[in-house]
Structures are given as C-alpha cells and as structure tokens.
From TrEMBL, chain A:
CDD domains: CuRO_HCO_II_like_2 (cd13915)
Membrane topology: Multi-pass membrane protein
Catalysis performed (reactions): 4 Fe(II)-[cytochrome c] + O2 + 8 H(+)(in) = 4 Fe(III)-[cytochrome c] + 2 H2O + 4 H(+)(out)
Domain (Cytochrome oxidase subunit II copper A binding): residue spans on this chain: 96-207
Compartments where found: Membrane
Role this protein plays: Subunits I and II form the functional core of the enzyme complex. Electrons originating in cytochrome c are transferred via heme a and Cu(A) to the binuclear center formed by heme a3 and Cu(B).
InterPro entries named in the record: CcO_II, CcO_II-like_C, Copper_CuA, Cupredoxin, Cyt_c-like_dom, Cyt_c-like_dom_sf, Cyt_c_oxidase_su2, Cyt_c_oxidase_su2_TM_dom
Underlying gene: coxB
Name of this chain's protein: cytochrome-c oxidase
Gene Ontology biological-process entries: ATP synthesis coupled electron transport
Residue span(s) of domain Cytochrome oxidase subunit II transmembrane region profile: 1-95
Family recorded in the similarity comment: Belongs to the cytochrome c oxidase subunit 2 family.
TrEMBL record, chain B:
EC category name: translocase
The keyword Heme belongs to this UniProt entry's keyword annotation: yes
Name of the gene: ctaD
Protein's name in the database: Cytochrome c oxidase subunit 1
Family matches, as PANTHER family: CYTOCHROME C OXIDASE SUBUNIT 1 (PTHR10422)
Cellular component GO terms, alphabetical: plasma membrane
Subcellular location: Cell membrane; Membrane
GO process terms (BP): electron transport coupled proton transport; oxidative phosphorylation; respiratory electron transport chain
EC number(s) recorded for this UniProt protein: 7.1.1.9
C-alpha cells in the first residue's frame, strides 16, 4: 500500500490557522449540507403520496421563516468573512525582518537567487522559524508559486513583482507547484521546498551549489562557476549600477540630476503632480524601465528607459542594491 | 404559416413531401418549438463531444505518469472539454432548449417576439460551433477555456484565433436569445398574465437574459482584444508589449462570473417548476424565489474579483470582493430553503424529474457551500487553482445545471414529443448519475485540499488513489448519461401516448395538446389564476387516490 494521505501536512505558521478556519467551515457546512438532506429525505418519505398524513392548512409563504433563513446564514457568512479577512491581511503583510529571496518563473522552471548570490533551480531552501519574503516575477507568462503544506500561493506575473511570505515551522521537504496553467509542461514546473534549521540553512548557503548560469539556466561544466557561489546580490547590483551608468546621475551626494537613491526604498515619494507614491519593488522597477511614468518632484524627465537592457535577473540585483542603500541610510 | 392549426395537428407534423421541403420546413423554421428541437440535438451533440474529452482526461489521470497522452495533447483535451462544455453546452443549454420551447407556451404567446432572430441565433450558435470544431480538428488549442494572457495572446502556438472566433460568434447567439426572451416576456404575456403570475421558470429566464445581454458583449470585446494582440502585436495584455495581463482577467471574469449564473439560474427556474408539480402544491415563498433570481443577477456582476485573489490584485480589492461573494450566497440559500419548505405537507411522488430535482438540491448545496470556502480569501489562497475548485464548480455546473437540464428534459419530454419514456429506466439512470457524480467529484475536494493543482498532466504518486476513485466514478457517471439517450430515443416510437397533462401540473403549457399545435394556442388564453394554483386539497386528493400499484 503506497503513501495515501487525506490531509496535507502543516508546515508553516499559516497552516494551523487556515486549517482551523477550514474545519470550522466544514462543521458549519455539515449543519446545513448534512442536516438539510435529512430534512429533505424525511419530508420525501413522510409526505410521499402513499402516506396518509395530515395535509390540511398548507402554508405558502411566511415572512418570519424567510427572515430566519435569510438572517441566520447572513450572520454566519459575515462571521467567517471577518475571521478569514483578518487572517488574509496577515498573510499579505510580510514582517519587516523577513529574509528576502528573489524568484523568477519561466516556462517551465523556477529560478531562485538568495541574497548572498547563491542560486538554485526548482528548489527553494529556507530556514525554519524565520519569516521569508519571496519577491517574484516572471520572464514570460503568468505562473503561480504554490506550497500546499504552507497553505500559500501567489501568482507570478511578467512585468511586475508580486510578494509572498511565510514562516516554515518544520524541517522537511515539501512540494512546490506551479498552480497557474502556463503551457505545455505546466505540470513539470514543480520542485521542492527544503526547510532547514537555521544552522543547516546557513551551512547550505555557504556551500557552492549546482552550476547555474546567471540567466537561470543550468549550464554545462563551467569549472569556474563550480567554485564560486557568485557575488552577493547587493555587490552584483552595485557593479551594475556603475556599469549601466546609473551612478552618474543618481549621485550619493545628492548633487546629481537624478534623485539620490539612499533611503528611497519603502519611503513615500512626492511626484511632480503632487501625489505620493510608495517606493516598493514595483515602483523601482517601473522607474528603471519606464522612467517617464512617475517623475519625482523637483526633477526633470530626462532619464532614458532601460527597457530591454536589464534582464529580470539583473533587475533583481539592482533592487537588492538600491534596498541596501536604504538600510545604509538608516544607520 | 398561413393555415390555422387543425385539430390534432402538432408542430412536429409535416406537410413536406420532398426532402427539400422537409429540410426547409426544419432548417428555415421560425417556430420556437422546432428551433428548440434543433438546439436540443445540436447542444446534446456538443455535450457528448465535451464528455468524450472528459473521459480522455479521466483515463489519463488514472496513473501519475503521462502515459496515454502527451502533455500537449492533454492540454488540448482539457481545453476542448472546457470550451465545449462552457460555451456550447452549459451557457446555451437550458435557455436555448427549454427556454425556447417553454417561454412562449408558459406566458400564453404564439411564438417569440422575434421568430426570425430566434432562428438566426441557432445559426450563429452552429457557426460558432463549427469554428470551435475546426480549431479542434486542425490541432486544437492549449490555452484552457480561460484564455489567460499573455499565454494566449503571445506564447501559445495553437489555434487560438479560430477558437476565439467560435466563442465570439457564439456570444452573439446568446445575446440574440437574451434579447428575444426579454422582449417576449415584456410584451407578449397573455391577458391576465401579470408579472407575479409568471411561472418561476420565466422569472429565472428573464434574470438570465438580463445577465446575457449585459455581460456577453464584454467577453466579445475581450476576446477580440486578445485576437488583435495576437495577430498584430498591439500591446494590450502582454507586458512585453506594454500591456497589462491582469486587465484581461478583470474583463474575462466580468463576463465569466455572471456566466456561471447564466448556467445555473435557468436551472433554479426548472427546479422550482419540478418541486411544485411533484409536491402538488403551490411553491413556498414565490416572491422570494423570484426576487432572489433578480438579486443573484445583480450581485453576480459585483464578485468577479473572487477569481483573482492570488492574481496580484490589492488586499483591499480582495476584501471587497470576498465580502460581496458572501452576500451572493444568501439568495441561493433562500431558494434552497423555500424548495425544502414546499415539500412540507405536499403529496410527493418520486417520478424521474422529481428525482433529478431532489438530486439537484443535494448537489447544489455542496457546490454552494464550498463556494463560501472559496469566497474566504485565507482559504482561497490555498485551494484556488487546485482540484478543490474543479470539484466545486463541477458540483455547481454538473450537479446543478446538468441535473436541472435533465430534470427539465424529463419533465417536459411528454410535452415536446407527446410520448412517455420508461419511468423505471428514468429512475435508475437518475440514481446512477447521482452516485457516479459524487464518486467522481467528491474525492477531488480531498485531493484539492491536499494541494493537487488543476490542469496537471502528471502528478505526485500520493494523489493516485483519489484520482483512480474519481476516474471510476466518471465511468459510472458516463453510463448514467448514456442510458437516458437510449430510452428517450426509444420512447419516440414505443412510448405511451402522454396526453395533454401527464403530471397533472398547472401552467399554460399543460393546457395545450402534446405535442403542442404549431401556433400553440388556437385562442389566446386569458389568465385568471396565480402560478401553481393547485387547489388547497390537491395534495390530500392525490394522496387519497394513491393505491398500491400507482406510480410511486
């Protein structure tokens, strides 16, 4: 007899609360969906035409009854709505101290880069007991990053970032699925999530891994890369920042023709039209690829577009660098 | 058309002596009843085709490996299944077959308001179907019935344009039918047939038509935009071209969520008719059932975002759509409670249509309740795009819409054909469908909560037992669908003569002969009574007359 589970493992901090809500709904459903059929069965038998029972004084409408079976379900669904709503807000609000990992989806694989530069394909190594925030984008069509045992799922879109977070609780290996149909080999766009104790995770991070080229593909035998984990993302991003010429205008002394980017991430930016925009990953991305879309107040629309010059991978590194500037500013 | 109906003449009888005249009499007919028959045959053909695709899918899923089909073929199979079943069976199903046949008869009219438009809508339906079939024959399409961009508009290299054209044309068929129903119900009711004397099937058809007319143009435009992006590279949905992929999902679900109600609302109407007829009493809470249809039609337009909780829409949007989704559950619940209350003190008979109606309630309750699970975002995040969703919408679509369609076909079959079918086989097949259906789809709730994503050609080993169970159930379900085709066909020649009103039901359609004369009513009926006006003692009399050996 093979392994034959009927209920998924609970391996993240969300799994417990989601399952409690789920079983509550199952319970409420049994009250309606379980008892109602028996009432129907009872009426079917009791009032079958062969039964000699009292059929006088039939009722054809009753406002009190209608109100009863309108109001009680309404109260119940609103209760579970609010319960689920608070849980949902929690599931969509990553804590500030989350470990940030970058994910790129493409037909038909997942590519992951860790802040220290380590890369992996179709696997995600994470520490337990620490919130992990995934910053995800797609190179082609829509995918969806799904870890059933964590009860989390988030679509991964081309042209923008989507965010997902979780905190694993149990060391182990878990399924990773693409849940949004993405073409021929959709069902092979799967992998595993490996949750490790923090010490094991740190050891894993420091160990050179597979030969993975920066474009996300698994390369042939490139001896030089076997040895190296790769540059940390911030460092790679800093080099890009220099080589693409960003540093010429976005000067750290604030005297450039573009804004100083220190402290920009996660701040509110005043635009030329007076509105405020929150500088999250999507704002930074848009400002690099389509700089004219939102102009920071006090600056001219002179930045050229970097559309087509920056790969998704490099974009992630640039983001990591710009975010590191934000941290530097706090100190 | 000019001759008045002779006594005993009915719409199925023919003056035609040559094949050409016969073809003309059927394929250029403007008689709503003949058009309903044309729809009945063509829609059932598409249903069998969609069912064939489903069988292939279920056979493939017996093993975790992809052994019967290649990944590409599998994707084309489930896409074909979805497109055929949604666009060419479920959406037109009850309105075009039962609605076309019954709306004029039930309101005391001689035909639809626009008989030629009605015929035209069937040709549009067939034209759309031919495009979709052509696409399938030339290699199929692999986008899923949802056509999500930018996959459909840029990446897929299958027959997207042909298929989209088919769905686009079919949309106009829906719209013309919807317009026809609205105008007919507004303007052609017989004297005395006030709005609150209308059978609930008419209320449901009216609400459905409103949704059709308001929502279908949106899907037409959306599919057109996909085609424009695909053909000419105009950036609308693909971010690489400057488009927005979520825009497609908003537009698509703005139609496709109301489309769910296009499928199920007419079913509600059928069930209201069946429950009243086989309980032999007036339906409980007539106004509440009628207005709940209208409430569903309205609220159904405001909940599309619940298909997009993990798509990347904002938390606020998620909360608003979740809240509205909770509200739309209420009118459906009201209907179920009112049907149940109708049974109380009735004189219930277990005739075939009633078995379908009772089966409908049981399955629809499960489909509706799991809809609440899905409407709560925290749970939706885990189960969306898994087999949990697949099971949920099959409980609503198959357990709801198809059970109602079959119940309706069995109820009005004697009216449509003038003959009775074999009731023993009718009951047996209704039970087989009920058992087979639950066996097919209940395990999918479990495998879905375990995390099995939908549209997977290969899957992890540990899900196999549940998939095997599901495929076994599908075999039973398939047998259940085939049996009615056999005994209903046989009944056309061997069935007992039904008489005008074999169920002793109320309603104008039962006052004309079976099959009805071409012009329905020789004199325009004047309505003086409420809908379902069974005498107060109808149930008592019916029960008192029951003897061992009478129909159960």
């Amino acid at each position: 007899m093979q392994d034959f589970p009927l209920f998924p493992e609970q391996a993240s901090t969300f799994a417990g609360p989601v399952d409690v809500l789920y079983w509550t709904l199952v319970g409420l459903s049994l009250i309606f969906g379980g008892i109602l059929p028996f009432i129907i069965l009872y009426l079917m038998v009791r009032y079958h035409r062969s039964q000699k029972v009292d059929r006088t004084n039939q009722l054809h409408s009753s406002l009190p009854l209608e109100l009863t079976w309108t109001v009680i379900p309404l109260v119940l669904v609103l209760t579970v709505f609010f319960w689920g709503a608070f849980l949902y807000i929690d599931m969509r609000t990553p804590p500030d101290d989350s470990l940030e990992i970058y994910v790129i989806g493409k037909q038909w694989m997942w590519h992951v880069q860790h802040p220290n530069g380590k890369r992996e394909n179709n696997e995600l190594h994470i520490p337990i007991g620490q919130p992990v925030k995934l910053i995800m984008t797609s190179q082609d069509v829509i995918h969806s990053f799904y870890i059933p045992d964590f009860r989390v799922k988030q679509d991964v879109l081309p042209g923008r970032y989507t965010i997902m977070w979780f905190e694993a609780t149990q060391p182990g290996e878990y399924h990773l699925f693409c849940a949004e149909y993405c073409g021929t080999e959709h069902s092979l766009m799967v992998g595993r999530v490996v949750a490790l104790r923090l010490a094991d995770y740190e050891r894993w991070l420091a160990t050179p891994g597979e030969i993975i080229l920066p474009d996300g593909s698994v390369g042939g035998a490139v001896p030089a890369l076997v040895e190296a984990i790769g540059d940390p993302m911030e460092l790679a991003g800093g080099q890009l920042f220099a080589s693409l010429g960003c540093a010429g205008c976005h000067r750290s002394d604030g005297l450039g023709i573009g804004p100083n980017l220190a402290g920009l991430y996660a701040s509110e930016v005043r635009l030329t039209d007076g509105s405020l925009v929150f500088a999250d990953e999507n704002y930074l991305r848009e400002s690099i690829l389509n700089p004219g879309a939102k102009i920071a107040a006090g600056y001219a629309n002179v930045m050229p577009s970097y559309e087509g010059q920056v790969s998704e991978d490099q974009m992630n590194q640039l983001l990591a660098y710009i975010k590191s500037l934000a941290d530097a500013n706090v100190e | 058309m000019a001759t008045t109906a002779l006594p005993g003449r009915n719409y199925l009888e023919e003056d035609a002596t040559t094949i050409g005249a016969w073809l003309k009499a059927w394929f250029l007919t403007v008689d709503h009843k003949r058009i309903a028959i044309l729809y009945l045959l063509s829609i059932n053909f598409f249903f069998l085709l969609g069912g064939l695709a489903a069988s292939v899918i279920r056979v493939e899923l017996i093993t975790p490996q992809g052994d019967l089909l290649s990944a590409d073929l599998y994707n084309r199979a489930f896409t074909l299944h979805g497109i055929i079943m949604v666009f060419f069976f479920l959406i037109p199903g009850i309105p075009a077959v039962l609605g076309n046949f019954l709306v004029p008869l039930m309101i005391g009219a001689r035909d639809m308001a626009f008989p030629r438009l009605n015929l035209f809508s069937w040709y549009l339906y067939m034209a759309g179907g031919i495009f979709a079939l052509t696409a399938a024959i030339f290699g199929g399409v692999d986008t899923g019935w949802t056509f999500y961009t930018p996959f459909s508009s840029t990446y897929a290299n299958s027959n997207v344009i042909l298929t989209i054209t088919g769905a686009f044309i079919m949309g106009f068929s829906s719209i013309t039918t919807g317009v026809n129903f609205i105008v007919t119900i507004h303007t052609m009711r017989a004297p005395g047939m006030t709005w609150f004397r209308l059978p609930l099937f008419i209320w449901a058809s009216y609400a459905t038509s409103l949704i059709i007319v308001l929502a279908t143009p949106v899907i037409g435009i959306t599919l057109l935009l996909v085609a424009i992006e695909r053909l000419w590279g105009v950036g609308i949905f693909d971010p690489a071209l400057g488009g927005d992929p979520l825009l497609f999902q908003h537009l698509f679900w703005f139609y496709s969520h109301p489309a769910v109600y296009i499928m199920i609302l007419p079913g509600f109407g059928v069930i209201s008719e069946l429950i009243a007829a086989f309980s032999r009493k007036r339906i409980f809470g007539y106004e509440f059932i009628a207005f709940s249809s209208m409430a569903i039609a309205l609220l159904g337009f405001l909940v599309w975002g619940h298909h997009m909780f993990v798509s990347g829409q904002s938390v606020y949007a998620g909360l608003v759509f979740s809240f509205l989704t909770m509200l739309v559950a209420i009118p459906s619940a009201i209907k179920v409670f009112n049907w149940t209350a109708t049974l109380y003190k009735g004189s219930i008979s277990y005739r075939t249509p009633m078995l379908y109606a009772l089966g409908f309630i049981g399955l629809f309750v499960i489909g509706g309740l799991t809809g609440i699970f899905l409407g709560i975002v925290a749970i939706n995040i885990h189960v969306t795009d898994t087999y949990f969703v697949v099971a949920h919408f099959h409980y609503v679509m198959v357990g709801g819409a198809i059970m109602a369609y079959l119940g309706g076909i069995h109820y009005w079959w004697p009216k449509m054909t003038g003959r009775m079918y074999n009731e023993v086989w009718g009951g047996i097949s209704a039970l087989i469908i009920f058992v087979g259906f639950n066996m097919t789809f209940f395990p999918q709730f479990i495998v879905g909560y375990l995390g099995m994503p939908r549209r997977y050609h290969v899957y992890p080993q540990e899900f196999q037992v549940l998939h095997v169970l599901s495929s076994a159930g599908a075999t039973i379900l398939a047998i259940g669908f085939i049996i009615p085709i056999i005994y209903l066909t046989i009944s056309l020649w061997k069935g007992a003569i039904a008489g005008d009103n074999p169920w002793d039901a109320t309603g104008l359609e039962w006052e004309v002969s079976s099959p009805p004369p071409t012009h329905n009513f020789t004199t325009t009926p004047v309505v003086t009574r409420e809908a379902y006006d069974y005498p107060p003692d109808a149930a008592e009399v019916d029960a008192a007359n029951w003897r061992p050996g009478s129909p159960l």
